[in-house]
Specification:
single chain, 4-stranded antiparallel β-sheet, globular, alpha+beta
Length: about 140
């Protein structure tokens, strides 16, 4: 999910994600009641997993501002690469390590399923999250060895 922009791409409209749409992160509830609250800045992620889920939803919604806001300043790109033909369709959280209310760091391993045209694909990542000024942010992806 840490795709960086390598070359400018033609702009395409974000996928239609209504407040009443199911939340892309896979948790029960509507987008407005789940990750939409984080994207709008109404609440902050309380765990590393909650941040990872909200970032997945932000990739699905093409919410560049939220992604950049929740990226660690040392690893944050200038912009986010949204491939116009790619659609994020399902998230599987495989494991979490720490990342709770009393932790300063946490990890989340996941599979993000996508389609690109008629092809299906899976991105597997083991992401590392840390707190900056009390807020969870995405730091980087760990090796999958």
């Amino acid at each position: 999910m840490s795709r960086r922009r390598s070359a400018p791409r033609a702009s395409t409209p974000a996928p239609r994600l209504l407040p009443s749409s199911p939340c892309p992160c896979g948790l029960p509830g509507s987008y407005a009641e789940c990750c939409g609250r984080l994207h709008r800045g109404q609440v902050a992620a309380t765990t590393a997993e909650a941040l990872m889920r909200s970032r997945y939803s932000a990739f699905a919604a093409r919410d560049e501002a939220y992604l950049l806001r929740t990226w660690h300043p040392d690893t944050r790109p200038d912009s986010v690469d949204f491939d116009p033909g790619l659609r994020w369709v399902r998230l599987e959280v495989l494991s979490t390590g720490e990342g709770g209310a009393f932790h300063a760091e946490g990890t989340v391993a996941f599979r993000a399923h996508f389609t690109e045209g008629r092809e299906e694909g899976v991105l597997t990542e083991h992401s590392r999250f840390v707190r900056v000024d009390g807020a969870w942010v995405y730091l980087d992806a760990l090796s999958l060895d």
